[in-house]
Design brief:
Layout: H1 2-25, H2 41-51, H3 54-71, H4 78-96, H5 102-126, H6 132-148, H7 151-164
Helix pairs in contact: 1-2, 1-3, 2-3, 2-4, 2-5, 2-7, 3-4, 4-5, 5-6, 5-7
Length: about 170
Amino acid sequence: MRDFNRVIRCLAYTLELLVLFMLQETPGLLPPIYGVRPVLLLPAVIAIALFEEEIPAMAFGIVGGLFCDFGLAGALGFHGAALAVLCFFISLQSRSVMQVNLATALITGAWSIGLTVCAQWFFLYYFTYSMPEYAFTHHYLPKYFYTMLFVPLLYLLNKALYQALRPAT
């Protein structure tokens, strides 16, 4: 029964990432604020990493990152590699150091999404375009705050999913 619940949970997470990718990429579905739309996959893979073990969390980080690479402009594999390392680290910390609740999910979302958005700006924009400060304050910061709005919702969704299909102990 334990393996069956794990398979169902993995299928549910994969379906969640696929649906969130479609929602994120559908024009006009989520209203742009300050000209930017949220990246729904970032809080989703962070919430998954809070509940799953290290290797599955890293795998979902890769999947979510590759979906981000397909949807966002940039080098293929950039988000996949970044989110794989980030999700592995978040899962390791949630298993050994921190207690997983809404407050820690918000704190983890704040620093990890901030780190990802800053890495996007630094590696994909800073070296190739002029006026990087303007782009950071008028595009990347609004994207960060708009994405942060979805952290509590996706945390609660993944918590309910994990509790419904948690491994038997």
